[in-house]
C-alpha cells in the first residue's frame, strides 16, 4: 500500500489505544502506523532563524517530523492570518476579523517553508493529506515544486457563505490554490455547498459536474462531505475506567441530588458561551421551581490568550457568570459552576455520564465532537439528553438531539425545561438513535472513507465508489 504523509499545523500523535488522546490524533496515528507513514508539522517551538532543520522522532510507532518557526512566523502566520483573520471569518465573525497584509505575507511564507521542508521526504508513491485552515495553500506550494503525488485537503472548520468570504482581500487566490488538491473534504453538506456557491459565482470557467467533481483550467478535483466522528469504542471503554467512575461518583456526591447540565468548550467566541449563560439564566427566571434543583457546570479551558478578542471573551464570561450567581445563588447552591481548566478525557467521560443534559450550543462549529462524546458516555439504561445548536456541523447527523437556535435565550431555556421533564422512555429512544450514528460513523470510518477517495486516481474507480 502507499505510504501516507499527514501534514498539519501541529503534530500530536496518539499512543496506540490511548484513552486521553483526541479522536483526530487516534485516527491519523492508526493510518500512519498501518502505512508506515510520517506526520509532518510545526513543533510548537521557535528559533531565531528558520533553517528547515527537521526533528525526527517516533511516538508509539508513528514517525513524526517537525520544524521550529521564527517568532515573526508564529505572530503573522499562526496568531495573525490563521487565528485573527481566517478563524473569525470562517466562523461568521467578520466583526473581529483582522485583515493585515503582513499576516497574509507570513501565512504564504510559512506555507512555502513547509513545502520546501517536507518535499525531500516525499517518495513517488506517497499519498499526502493536508489538514485545516492553517495550510490551505500548501498543495499549490507543493505543486509549484514539482510534486505530482495525490494530495488531499480536509477543512475542520466551517466554510463561510460567499458574501463573507468576499471580505477577505485575497479570497480568490486562496480558493484557486485549493485546485492543487485532488480531493478536498468538509464536515457537512452545508459547508460543501457554500464552497460550491463561491466557485460557481467567482471562478469563471469552473464546471461543477456529477459527484461534485469540479474542473477549472483543465484540472479536476473532487469535493466531498465527510463528517468526522470520535473513537467511539475507546470513549465508551474509558467511561468504565477507574478515573471515569471516580469522576462520576464525585459529581453525583457534589450534585447532592440536583440535576447537572454540562458544557465543555474551549474558551472561544465561536462556542456561544455568553449566549448559553443567558439562555440558562432565562430558564432560571422562567422556572423558579428549578432554583436550587439544577446547576450548570461549564468547563472552559482558556486558549489563544495572546489574542485580544479571547481575553475579552474571558472577561465577559467572568462578569456574566458572577452576575447570574449573584442574582440567583443562596448559601447552599450556585447556579453556575464555571471552571477555566481542562480535564483528561477519561475524567470527562465520567462527568458527562453524571449530567442529565449535555448543553452544546456553539454559534458556529465545523463539527463539535463534544456532542458525540456526551452521547457515547451515557448509561444506556438512563441516558441524559443532548441539547445541540442547529449551527454545529454535528446537527446534520444528530437530528434526535433537541436542536436549538443558540442566539435565542428563550429557545435554549425551553429546551432545558423540556430535557429535564423528558420521560425516561423518550430519553432512551433518542439516545439509541444518536448512539447508532456515533457508532457507525466513527473517526476510523471517516479516516478510511477519505483516504479511499484520495487513493483512487479515477473518480469512477471502485475504491471511490465503495467509499461514497
UniProtKB/TrEMBL annotation:
Keyword terms, alphabetized: Glycosyltransferase, Transferase
Molecular function terms, GO-annotated: alpha,alpha-trehalose-phosphate synthase (UDP-forming) activity
Gene3D superfamilies: Glycogen Phosphorylase B (3.40.50.2000)
CDD domains per the UniProt record, alphabetical: GT20_TPS
Superkingdom of origin: Bacteria
GO biological process: trehalose biosynthetic process
Pfam families listed in its UniProt record: Glyco_transf_20 (PF00982)
E.C. number(s) listed in UniProt: 2.4.1.15
InterPro entries noted in UniProt: Glyco_trans_20
Family named by the database record: Belongs to the glycosyltransferase 20 family.
Protein name (record): Alpha,alpha-trehalose-phosphate synthase UDP-forming
Biological source species: Edaphosphingomonas haloaromaticamans
Lineage per the UniProt record: Bacteria, Pseudomonadati, Pseudomonadota, Alphaproteobacteria, Sphingomonadales
Gene that this polypeptide is encoded by: otsA
Amino acid at each position: 500500500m502507499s505510504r501516507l504523509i499527514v501534514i498539519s499545523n501541529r503534530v500530536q500523535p496518539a499512543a496506540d489505544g490511548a484513552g486521553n488522546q483526541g479522536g483526530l490524533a487516534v485516527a491519523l496515528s492508526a493510518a500512519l502506523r498501518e502505512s508506515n507513514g510520517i506526520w509532518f508539522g510545526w513543533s510548537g517551538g521557535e528559533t531565531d532563524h528558520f533553517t528547515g532543520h527537521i526533528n525526527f522522532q517516533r511516538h508509539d510507532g508513528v514517525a513524526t517530523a517537525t520544524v521550529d518557526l521564527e517568532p515573526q512566523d508564529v505572530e503573522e502566520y499562526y496568531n495573525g492570518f490563521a487565528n485573527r483573520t481566517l478563524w473569525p471569518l470562517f466562523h461568521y465573525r467578520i466583526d473581529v476579523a483582522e485583515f493585515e497584509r503582513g499576516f497574509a505575507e507570513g501565512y504564504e511564507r510559512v506555507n512555502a517553508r513547509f513545502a520546501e521542508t517536507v518535499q525531500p521526504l516525499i517518495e513517488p508513491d506517497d499519498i499526502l493529506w493536508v489538514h485545516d485552515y492553517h495550510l490551505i495553500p500548501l498543495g499549490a506550494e507543493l505543486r509549484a515544486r514539482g510534486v505530482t503525488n495525490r494530495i488531499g485537503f480536509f477543512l475542520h472548520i466551517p466554510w463561510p457563505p460567499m458574501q463573507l468570504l468576499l471580505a477577505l482581500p485575497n479570497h480568490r487566490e486562496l480558493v484557486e490554490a485549493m485546485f492543487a488538491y485532488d480531493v478536498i473534504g468538509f464536515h457537512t453538506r452545508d459547508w460543501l455547498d457554500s464552497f460550491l456557491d463561491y466557485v460557481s459565482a467567482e471562478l469563471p470557467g469552473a464546471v461543477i459536474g456529477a459527484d461534485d467533481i469540479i474542473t477549472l483550467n483543465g484540472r479536476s478535483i473532487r469535493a466531498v462531505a465527510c463528517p468526522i466522528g470520535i473513537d467511539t469504542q475507546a470513549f465508551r471503554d474509558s467511561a468504565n475506567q477507574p478515573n471515569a467512575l471516580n469522576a462520576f461518583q464525585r459529581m453525583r456526591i457534589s450534585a447532592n441530588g440536583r440535576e447537572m447540565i454540562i458544557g465543555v468548550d474551549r474558551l472561544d467566541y465561536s462556542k456561544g458561551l455568553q449566549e448559553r449563560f443567558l439562555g440558562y439564566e432565562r430558564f432560571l427566571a422562567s422556572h423558579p421551581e428549578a432554583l436550587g434543583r439544577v446547576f450548570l457546570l461549564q468547563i472552559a479551558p482558556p486558549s489563544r490568550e495572546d489574542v485580544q478578542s479571547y481575553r475579552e471573551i474571558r472577561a465577559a464570561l467572568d462578569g456574566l457568570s458572577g452576575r447570574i450567581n449573584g442574582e440567583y445563588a443562596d448559601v447552599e447552591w450556585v447556579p453556575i459552576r464555571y471552571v477555566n481548566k481542562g480535564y483528561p478525557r477519561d475524567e470527562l467521560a465520567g462527568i458527562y455520564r453524571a449530567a442529565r443534559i449535555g448543553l452544546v450550543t456553539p454559534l458556529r462549529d465545523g463539527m463539535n465532537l463534544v456532542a458525540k462524546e456526551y452521547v457515547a458516555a451515557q448509561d444506556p439504561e438512563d441516558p441524559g439528553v443532548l441539547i445541540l445548536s442547529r449551527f454545529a456541523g454535528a446537527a446534520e447527523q444528530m437530528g434526535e438531539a433537541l436542536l436549538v437556535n443558540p442566539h435565542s435565550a428563550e429557545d435554549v431555556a425551553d429546551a432545558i425545561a423540556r430535557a429535564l421533564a423528558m420521560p425516561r422512555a423518550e430519553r432512551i429512544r433518542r439516545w439509541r438513535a444518536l448512539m447508532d450514528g456515533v457508532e457507525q460513523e466513527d473517526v476510523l470510518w471517516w479516516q478510511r472513507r477519505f483516504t479511499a477517495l484520495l487513493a483512487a486516481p479515477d473518480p469512477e474507480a471502485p475504491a471511490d465508489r465503495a467509499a461514497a
